[in-house]
Amino acid sequence: MITLDLILPDTRYPIHIGHGLLEQVDLLLPHLPIPKAAIVSNETVAPLYLHRLQQALGARGVACTSVILPDGERYKDWQTLNLIFDSLLAGNAERRTTLIALGGGVIGDMTGFAAACYQRGAPFVQIPTTLLAQVDSSVGGKTAINHPQGKNMIGAFYQPRAVIADMDLLETLPDRELSAGLAEVIKYGLLGDADFLAWLEQNMAALRQRDSAALQYAVRRSCEMKAAIVAEDEKENGVRALLNLGHTFGHAIEAGLGFGAWLHGEAVAAGMVLAAAASAELGWLGAADVERVRRLIAAAGLPVKAPAMPAEQWLKLMSHDKKVEAGTVRFVLLRSLGQAAIQAGLDTSLLERILLENS
Amino acid sequence: MITLDLILPDTRYPIHIGHGLLEQVDLLLPHLPIPKAAIVSNETVAPLYLHRLQQALGARGVACTSVILPDGERYKDWQTLNLIFDSLLAGNAERRTTLIALGGGVIGDMTGFAAACYQRGAPFVQIPTTLLAQVDSSVGGKTAINHPQGKNMIGAFYQPRAVIADMDLLETLPDRELSAGLAEVIKYGLLGDADFLAWLEQNMAALRQRDSAALQYAVRRSCEMKAAIVAEDEKENGVRALLNLGHTFGHAIEAGLGFGAWLHGEAVAAGMVLAAAASAELGWLGAADVERVRRLIAAAGLPVKAPAMPAEQWLKLMSHDKKVEAGTVRFVLLRSLGQAAIQAGLDTSLLERILLENS
Ligand SMILES: NC(=O)c1ccc[n+]([C@@H]2O[C@H](COP(=O)([O-])OP(=O)(O)OC[C@H]3O[C@@H](n4cnc5c(N)ncnc54)[C@H](O)[C@@H]3O)[C@@H](O)[C@H]2O)c1
Ligand SMILES: NC(=O)c1ccc[n+]([C@@H]2O[C@H](COP(=O)([O-])OP(=O)(O)OC[C@H]3O[C@@H](n4cnc5c(N)ncnc54)[C@H](O)[C@@H]3O)[C@@H](O)[C@H]2O)c1
Ligand SMILES: [Zn+2]
Ligand SMILES: [Zn+2]
């Protein structure tokens, strides 16, 4: 097991990465202010892992309730969030009862937001069970639900007390979800680490075959980069925005097709190709660079073309992006492979061109 | 006009108290990061004051949208909150668009919570239009909506950028609402300032006749006390809990009868009598003290008796209180008139006795 530390102005917390961690409740116990926990999971993950976690906590005297949500991005909404509140109140959860997110990014984002709001703030812990959640969503304290008109529009910055990434849980993950997680891993290489990008090009086959050492290195390097960026800019006033590489396009795809049609990671993958293409239009990347991006994304089993949507729909959806400032959408583009930068505003004609070519 | 400053670890903001402030947008403008605002009001307050505010802001180049919610505590729920989000998204509100709460505590609490969640945090300003909101809810950053099973169960600590209390707006306030506000004013005297309590006893008639100087002093002294307590304990880990004098009982009344049946201030008033009676049972207050509390509350036009509810219902409703710790309800009681203290756990038999005598 390795442990990273995320140090923020008001708090700090460990990110444990390793094997067999689910039942090592010694990692969890120091973060529970009282021996009461409420586990939030979903219909897919609960049958696989909930019982083991509950047993392990129960054996150490922690009173546990659980709530099992329907599975899917389309349930990342207020109605489903309310099921968490209903369950907390039915179980007399207190302000210091710890919420435990046991699931992928959807469960993690919703549990974190529920914890942020329940009695104005209850403690919570992340046990991410997808690659995407282990490398990205469980770290950094962004929590949210979707609004029909925009992805992650309603949420909070609210940090977990600990992140426990048990690599063993990835064994049951479907291939398509593994690939979706690799999209965010590739993102880190593209936005800030050319060496890691090259490592990914060399190790993509091993990763897709779930080579244990390769996966653990990818999770570790991703979490290191995420933790460093979040430590520098918790509330996204600066550098943290770079983590949204591919996401302005990606969120438009997700909202435009209806949440859940494409996986988040798939939408981000196509979004990163669009970002690379836009960067090439500005002269920041060469054609060969864009090709390298496309090849790596394809090698990860991810789409390199966005779905066809009318240009006006793209523009309208992107105008709701959280990175809009003074009416202008701020895009994260690539100065070079391994170095992202913000570009405020792109010509409508440039946008139409790259959308036409890449969808 | 007088201005108080609330100084917190991460932020500070002014509380302006005076006459004719609604159209003095110079008080507002410094707090708008971009010249875009979204005013949230309700069906009752909007026809009275929205146009004037919008005109004044428009004249200074601020682009304003507005959303008008149904009026009432029973709408302090997720469905109504969503109307704010719908309106913000329809109006392309950005992360730095300022939300302005123009209304009483219900509008203030909901607008603040919407601001806390919209794109994970937008700026907001309070323009309280009820006495209760001017002396209490607009100051200190507690925001929330109700859950069917508990008052203010879902919310956030999220501070406004400014509070603008225009005394002139109280002219249109119904008498019953004025009295409800006086409940929170009396609360400050009871919990921490015996001199202010004596002043209230002498000036209650003037206050109810809306004597301008008396009202402004009551607002000012209340805000001073609230600001001092919040400055000391923003997140309610200690002394801030004292502001909940009468509220554990009061919230049970509100939830038990259905939100909106009793006004919040009325429920708190009856709750303060119960707290005084419980304090007497513990030997902290004498019978004459309890009588003084009853007399002042009655003089303010407020109920001194709680509605009849079965004892088990009281206990169940109070077990959902945010001040529950380790399964025990923590009551705010009175050591003496002018000095509150926390008491963890009260005998069920004691509770039943005081509930029987005071309802
Ligand atoms: N908060 C952040 O910073 C952040 C960052 C990136 C993504 N996100 C969010 O994360 C979400 C995507 O997360 P995700 O990709 O994990 O999706 P997900 O949570 O929907 O999980 C994907 C699928 O895998 C299943 N699953 C989870 N763990 C499993 C396991 N161990 N074995 C078998 N099946 C398993 C889930 O039930 C689901 O069907 C999006 O909503 C996205 O917006 C948030
Ligand atoms: N956040 C906090 O710290 C805090 C503190 C105390 C109370 N509260 C909350 O505040 C709420 C109660 O606030 P409230 O008493 O202001 O109730 P309210 O907001 O419902 O207002 C009372 C009534 O007066 C009307 N009104 C408002 N201003 C008016 C005006 N100037 N002229 C005529 N009518 C006017 C409203 O439309 C409403 O019908 C409760 O939900 C309570 O939980 C919050
Ligand atoms: Zn993402
Ligand atoms: Zn109150």
TrEMBL record, chains A, B:
Q: In what residue span(s) does the 3-dehydroquinate synthase N-terminal domain sit?
A: 67-179
Q: Which GO terms describe its biological process?
A: amino acid biosynthetic process; aromatic amino acid family biosynthetic process; chorismate biosynthetic process
Q: Its GO CC terms?
A: cytoplasm
Superkingdom: Bacteria
Q: Which reaction does it catalyse?
A: 7-phospho-2-dehydro-3-deoxy-D-arabino-heptonate = 3-dehydroquinate + phosphate
Q: Which cofactor does it need?
A: NAD(+); Co(2+); Zn(2+)
CDD domains (alphabetical) = DHQS
Q: Which UniProt keywords apply?
A: Amino-acid biosynthesis, Aromatic amino acid biosynthesis, Cobalt, Cytoplasm, Lyase, Metal-binding, NAD, Nucleotide-binding, Zinc
Pathway named in the protein's UniProt entry: Metabolic intermediate biosynthesis; chorismate biosynthesis; chorismate from D-erythrose 4-phosphate and phosphoenolpyruvate: step 2/7
For the ligand (NAD(+)), the binding residues are 71-76, 105-109, 129-130, 142, 151
Q: Where in the cell is it found?
A: Cytoplasm
Q: Tell me, what's a Pfam family for it?
A: DHQ_synthase
- What function does the entry list? Catalyzes the conversion of 3-deoxy-D-arabino-heptulosonate 7-phosphate (DAHP) to dehydroquinate (DHQ).
Q: Which PANTHER family match?
A: 3-DEHYDROQUINATE SYNTHASE (PTHR43622), 3-DEHYDROQUINATE SYNTHASE, CHLOROPLASTIC (PTHR43622:SF7)
Q: What is this protein called?
A: 3-dehydroquinate synthase
Which organism does this sequence originate in? Answer: Chromobacterium sphagni
Instruction: Point out the gene that encodes the protein.
Output: aroB
